[in-house]
Specification:
Number of domains of chain A: 2
Oligomer: heterodimer
Number of helices of chain A: 14
Helix content of chain A: over 70%
CATH topology of chain B: MetI-like fold
Order of helices and strands of chain B: HHHHHHHHHHHHHHH
Largest sheet of chain A: none
CATH class of chain B: Mainly Alpha
Strand content of chain B: under 5%
CATH architecture of chain B: Orthogonal Bundle
Membrane topology (chain A): Multi-pass membrane protein
InterPro entries (chain A): CysT_permease, MetI-like, MetI-like_sf, Sulph_transpt2
Number of domains of chain B: 1
Radius of gyration of chain A: 23 Å
Number of helices of chain B: 15
CATH superfamily of chain B: MetI-like
Shape of chain A: globular
Largest sheet of chain B: none
Subunit structure (chain A): The complex is composed of two ATP-binding proteins (CysA), two transmembrane proteins (CysT and CysW) and a solute-binding protein (CysP).
CATH class of the largest domain in chain A: Mainly Alpha
Distance between the termini of chain B: 56 Å
Structural class of chain A: mainly alpha
Distance between the termini of chain A: 20 Å
GO cellular component, one term (chain A): plasma membrane
GO molecular function, one term (chain A): ABC-type sulfate transporter activity
CATH topology of the largest domain in chain A: MetI-like fold
Chain lengths: 290, 285
C-alpha cells in the first residue's frame, strides 16, 4: 500500500499552462470530487464553528477545562499512547513473521490482521467486554493474577489496541518486503550479531514506517468510541474517554459544551492527520532519493 | 560459505519463538474474539438463535441497515472512482491537499462526525432550520443515518484505487485516446478491467463499515426501536437490556459480514498478485 513500493512511478502529467491534458474527464472527475468533498466533509464543519462562536471565550475555556473533561483528556491520551505502543511491538512482530518466515496458516493469519477494520466497533466492544468480564474466558484467569481489565482504564487500552492492530502491520509490511537482503547478508557474514544487524541495518530503514503506523494507531485510538464504551465502565474521572464526554453532553442537549469539547478533539486529530501526511511525504521522498 | 545468504532471525530458535509469540498473541487478540461471538450467539441453542434473528425488531434493524448500505455504497463508489481518476491521471494545484482531505473521516472520531451533522442539519443548525421551514427533517431519521454513513465511509474506495492507479500509470489509457476512443469507452474497456479487483475490495470495505458504523449513527439516530435502529444500535440496545444472547445473535450477523470481507480481501490479493493480462488496445480499436 505504501508508495515506497513503487518508487519508479512518475508524476502523470506536470501541471503547467502550456501542456495539454491528454486524458478526458478532468473536469467531470474533479468536479464530482470537489463537490463531494465540500458538501460531505467541509460543509458540516461550519456548523461546529457557528455553534462554538456563539460562546464567549470564557464560557469556551470553562467548558473545555472542566475537571471531569480534563481528566478524560488525560485518560484518552495515556490509554491511546499505551495501545499504540503495544501495537508498535505487536504489529512489528506480526509484519516480521508474515514477511520473513513461512509457516502453516500464514495466509489465514495475514487475513485475520484486518479483522478489527472489518468488525463493527460495537461488536468488538461487547465481545471484549464479555471476554474480560469477571466470569469471562480471559477475565477469570486474569482475576486470579489480580488483574482487572473490564470496567477499568486497562479495558480502554485493550479496546483501543484491538481496533488499531492493522495500522502498524500494514505500514511496516511493505517496507520489510522491499528491504534489500544485500546489506543484511553482508553484515551477517562479516560476523555481526543478529541484534546488532537489526539495530544498525534493518531498523534505520524501518522506523519511519513504524512511526507512521504508531501515529495512525494513536489517531484512531483518540477517536475510538464504540469498542470502548462497553468495556470501560465509564466511571467519571476514572475511565471516561473524551469522545464519550462529547456524547454525554449531547445527550444532555448541551450542544454548546459538546461542540466546545469536540472542537478541541477535532483540532488535535486534524493536526495529527496533516502531520502524518507531511511526515510520510518527507520520508517517502527520501527513500525514493528525490 | 554456507551462511553467506543467512539473514537476521534465520536461526531456528529465533524463528520458532517469534512465530510462536506472534501466533499466540494473534490467537488471543483476533481469533478467540470471533469464536466467542458465535459461541455466545449459539449458547442457548439453535432455535433461540433463530428466534433472536427473526425477532421483528431485529428484522427491521437488518432491513434498515441494508437499506442504508444500499444507498451509501453506490454514492461512495462514484465519488471514490472520480476522485482516484482526478488525482492519479492529472496534476493540478491542490492535488496533495485533496488527497489529505479525504482522510478526514479516518482521523475524526465517529461521535464528532455525528455531532457535525447534527449541528448543521439539526433543528437549530443554519441549514436544518431552513429545511425545517419546508418540513424536511433529516436528523433522527434515516436520511441522517445515511448522511453520516456516507461521511464515515467515503475514503475507502478512493484509498484502495489511488495507489493502484498511480502504479499502473496512464499509458494504456493514453493509447486509447490516440486511437480515438471516447472517454467512457476508455474507462470501461481499459481502466475498469485493471482496477476491477481493487474496486471490488473498496466496495466490500465500504459496505462492511456502512453496515457496522456505530458512533456516528448513534448520535443522529433517534434510537427508536423498529424505526431508526440499525443493527449495531440494536446490538447495543439488547446488550444494555441484559439480553446478551440476543445481542450476540445480532452481532454474529455483523461478524459474518466481517469474515466475508476478509475472505474477499484474501481473494482480491491473490488475484492481484498474478500478472495482469490485458490487451486493451485491441479491444478499443
Amino acid at each position: 500500500m505504501s508508495a515506497s513500493a513503487n518508487p519508479s512511478v512518475a508524476p502523470v502529467r506536470r501541471f503547467s499552462g502550456r501542456s495539454k491534458r491528454v486524458l478526458p474527464g478532468f473536469g467531470l472527475s474533479l468536479g464530482i470530487s470537489l463537490f463531494f468533498v465540500s458538501l460531505v466533509l467541509l460543509l458540516p464543519i461550519t456548523g461546529l464553528v457557528i455553534e462554538t462562536s456563539g460562546m464567549t471565550w470564557d464560557q469556551f475555556v470553562f467548558t473545555i477545562t472542566d475537571p471531569r473533561v480534563v481528566e478524560s483528556y488525560k485518560v484518552t491520551l495515556w490509554t491511546a499512547l499505551a495501545a499504540s505502543l503495544f501495537n508498535g511491538f505487536f504489529g512489528l512482530l506480526l509484519a516480521w513473521i508474515l514477511v520473513r518466515y513461512e509457516f502453516p496458516g500464514k495466509r489465514i493469519v495475514d487475513a485475520f490482521v484486518d479483522l478489527p477494520f472489518a468488525l463493527p466497533t460495537a461488536v468488538a466492544g461487547i465481545t471484549l467486554a464479555t471476554l474480560f468480564a469477571q466470569n469471562g474466558w480471559y477475565g477469570q484467569w486474569l482475576a486470579k493474577l489480580g488483574i482487572e481489565v473490564a470496567f477499568t482504564p486497562l479495558g480502554i487500552v485493550v479496546a483501543m489496541a484491538f481496533t488499531s492492530i492493522p495500522f502498524v502491520v500494514r505500514t511496516v509490511q511493505p517496507v520489510l518486503e522491499e528491504l534489500s537482503p544485500a546489506d543484511e547478508e553482508a553484515a551477517v557474514s562479516l560476523g555481526a550479531s543478529d541484534g546488532r544487524v537489526f539495530r544498525k541495518v534493518i531498523f534505520p530503514s524501518l522506523w519511519p514506517a513504524l512511526v507512521t503506523g504508531i501515529a495512525l494507531s494513536f489517531t484512531r485510538s483518540l477517536g475510538e468510541f464504540g469498542a470502548i464504551i462497553f468495556i470501560a465502565g465509564n466511571t467519571p474521572y476514572v475511565s471516561e474517554v473524551t469522545s464519550l464526554m462529547v456524547f454525554i453532553r449531547l445527550q444532555e442537549y448541551d450542544y454548546a459544551a459538546a461542540s466546545a469539547i469536540a472542537s478541541v478533539v477535532l483540532l488535535a486529530s486534524l493536526v495529527l492527520l496533516f502531520a502524518i501526511n507531511l511526515w510520510q511525504g518527507r520520508y517517502l521522498r527520501r527513500l525514493e532519493g528525490r | 560459505m554456507a551462511n553467506a545468504h543467512r539473514r537476521v532471525g534465520d536461526q531456528p530458535w529465533v524463528r520458532r519463538s517469534l512465530i510462536g509469540t506472534a501466533l499466540l498473541l494473534a490467537m488471543f487478540m483476533l481469533v478467540i474474539p470471533v469464536v466467542v461471538i458465535f459461541a455466545q450467539a449459539l449458547s442457548a441453542g439453535w432455535s433461540t438463535f433463530a428466534d433472536n434473528v427473526t425477532d421483528q425488531y431485529t428484522l427491521h434493524a437488518i432491513g434498515l441497515t441494508l437499506f442504508v448500505a444500499a444507498l451509501t455504497v453506490p454514492l461512495n463508489l462514484v465519488f471514490g472512482t472520480a476522485l482516484a481518476w482526478s488525482v492519479t491521471r492529472f496534476h493540478f494545484p491542490g492535488r496533495k491537499l485533496l488527497i489529505t482531505l479525504i482522510d478526514i473521516p479516518f482521523a475524526v472520531s465517529p461521535v464528532i462526525a455525528g455531532l457535525l451533522y447534527l449541528l448543521l442539519y439539526g433543528r437549530n443548525g443554519w441549514l436544518g432550520g431552513w429545511l425545517a421551514n419546508y418540513d424536511v427533517q433529516l436528523m433522527f431519521s434515516w436520511p441522517g443515518i445515511v448522511m453520516v454513513t456516507v461521511f464515515v465511509t467515503c475514503p475507502f474506495v478512493a484509498r484502495e484505487l489511488i495507489p493502484l492507479m498511480q502504479q499502473q500509470g496512464s499509458e494504456e489509457e493514453e493509447a486509447g485516446v490516440v486511437l480515438g476512443a471516447s472517454g467512457w469507452r476508455i474507462f470501461r474497456k481499459i481502466t475498469l478491467p485493471n482496477i476491477k479487483w481493487a474496486l471490488i475490495y473498496g466496495v466490500v470495505l465500504t459496505n462492511a463499515r456502512a453496515v457496522g458504523e456505530f458512533g456516528a449513527v448513534s448520535v443522529v439516530s433517534g434510537n427508536v426501536r423498529g424505526e431508526t435502529n440499525t443493527l449495531p444500535l440494536h446490538v447495543e440496545l439488547l446488550y444494555q437490556d441484559y439480553n446478551v444472547v440476543g445481542a450476540f445473535a445480532s452481532a454474529s450477523l455483523l461478524a459474518a459480514i466481517a469474515m466475508l470481507t476478509l475472505v474477499v480481501k484474501a481473494f482480491v490479493e491473490w488475484r492481484q498478485s498474478r500478472p495482469i493480462v490485458s490487451t486493451p488496445e485491441k479491444e478499443v480499436s
